[in-house]
Task: structure prediction
Amino acid sequence: MKRFIVLLQFLTRIPINVNLKVDEDDFFKGIIYFPLVGLVIGMFIVAAYYIGVKLSGKLLGAIFAVIIEIFITGGLHLDGLADTFDGIYSNRPKDKILEIMKDSRLGTNGALALFSLLIFKIALISSLKVIDSYGILLLMPIFSRLDMVLAARLAKPARKQGMGNLFIGKANTTQFITALIIAIIPALILPKIIPVIGLLLGFTVWYVKHITNKIDGMTGDTLGALCELSEVVYLLFINILFRW
Result:
């Protein structure tokens, strides 16, 4: 329970006024709780979506869902997305890419990535059938954070020091399998979505290889970017598969 609270405090802005004595071990050993943190976030997303749909319809529901996720996470992963796109697609050498990613200023690539992702996410959520959308949105942050666990298992750190080094290269196979089981249990409310987990994990494997080819590893920013990109890929897969 202690490690779950630590990860909830770290990955969200939910006010939990509990002072805990923690060390680095609590972070990387607590990585199994990433999907559980996603479940908590998913509950807020579903509640916001429900309110928006009742007020005005699916479009407002989608906007509310996206806004509440940003609010709950403090835009943590969106910041990683912007930094990743600013650096990775700057067509510079590794050292320069890492330097750009540390720069707090928002570049053109990062701004375009943020704008595009938010538009895509709102459009994809608003295109869901309301009858299925609650379960789909509940599971979305669970699966995206499971992808982060797999990436931490597969990748090595691109920096000698960094926030991402709390997890990257330290997660083991047992932790990933435990996180996978935790993610699958709530997915049983909508069994037809379970195969999408495999597609997302495949996307994660490709993403880790792609980033590693650029900077010889992963950083906290690229891990956050994976979370955001996984949610868009998830919604895209859902829209395609459910139409069939």
